Amino acid sequence: MKKLWLLLISLIGSPLFAEEFAYQAGVASQIITPTEPLWMAGYASRTKPCNTKKQDLWVKAIAIEDSKKQKLIVLTADICGIPRQLGVNVCSEITKQIGISRDQIMLTCTHTHSGPVVNHNLSDMYPLTPEQPERIIKYTEKLQQAMIDVCIKAVKELQPAQISIGEGKARFAVNRREVTPTGITNGKNPGGPVDHAVPTMKLTDAKGNLKAILFGYACHNTTLSGYEWSGDWAGYAQIELETKYPGTVALCWTGCGADANPLPRGNIELAEKYGKELATAVSDTLPKTFALTAPSTAKYHEIALPYDSIPAKGIWQADILNKQLAIRKRAEKYLKLIDAGTPIPKQYDYYPVQVWQFGDQLKWVSLGGEVVVDYVLRIKKEHGTKSPVWVTAYANDVLAYIPSKRVWTEGGYEGDSSMIYYGHPSRWSSEVESLIFAALSK
Ligand SMILES: [Zn+2]
Predict the structure, then answer these.
(1) What are the residues facing 55 on neighbouring strands?
(2) Residues lining ligand 1 (ion), CB within 5 A?
(3) From ligand 1's centre to the CA of 232, what distance in Å?
(4) Distance between CA atoms of 329 and 395, rounded to whole angstroms?
(5) Confidence (pTM)
(6) CA distances from 385 to 31, 379, 388 (A)
(7) Which of 16, 75, 80, 287 lies 20 to 30 A from 40 at CA?
(8) DSSP code of 183?
(9) How far is CA 75 from CA 30, 90, 95, 129, in A?
(10) What is the 1 CA–ligand 1 centroid distance (Å)?
(11) What is the DSSP letter of 320?
């Protein structure tokens, strides 16, 4: 018996054992479903707050630590978008409490359109009732605390783990940029580009128990548009996996699906169907994953994205009479600046570009905003020759749509008019794609 113990102890200290557990990992989750009536995010057409839930909404986090003691944290959240200030507050608190840098934290969301409005994210888009602004501020403060708490808890839970990755496929995302005689509309473009990949990460503990499954998909999370809290297809996929693998936390992020919709859409049965399809793609991938063993590197940059041409005062004065709320609110904002003698910004200064590299085993890019599919296709082509590439979008700061040069040239909602709802003074300059690709190589 003593000999057996000695053998076990020497094995634990051996390179073989260290190799098997090249990483430590921890996971944590917390419910963030609003507890009082709150406005729902994502659509301008809603006319009242929501007070019922179909599903709970969650923030979840995975922390990992490699053999060189570098930590990484990925947070997922069932909300429409994390605005910059919320991300800054969360990351600076995590840095203060556990000493890791901004490069090492990735904040993502499922972009559900059945979640609550978060302060400073598309805030000018909604016809809020008078009690809502204060409630939204309070909710955002609670959300911020929950985001900090799950990240810190995930780090505290670090223990030897095997991390492995693979990729499945799900086909419900359909390109939505339909060409019509009057321009590009939000419809159906079955021949248009999409990314059907389902990047999947599996975390098992030292005993081989499945602890967490992280996966992504490049599609708008817009099957539903009613008045019930729900994670939509991402929520159903997470529930399906957590039910199938009890004791496991399932986490979902969104890829470059800004110009893709789950089609057809419009009811709970479809959201559930897509969730199950995605969960099946993930569970079919689990046995085919390979272990990550390489240490990680993490880089995070914020770059300036210039606007196109800023409208003159007369345009804003006309817009203030527009029947669309978002157009009026934007005009009010910029007229105030002009009247105060403050120039309208010529660029957005903080566009986040993050790159995590795991040797030649995985390159994981995350981009801010609602990124169209052309980005993931080009990144895979240009950066995916040596290792698999994942591209997470809606990450760190959901500030606007991010069109490719093609989509910018074609125009339409993703290339142009969506900037109104995010409160920017004009569309992006034509350089947006080349600036982001230059930052990826920094
Ligand atoms: Zn969107």
Answers:
(1) none
(2) 370
(3) 13
(4) 26
(5) 0.94
(6) 39, 10, 8
(7) 75
(8) E
(9) 11, 11, 15, 31
(10) 61
(11) T
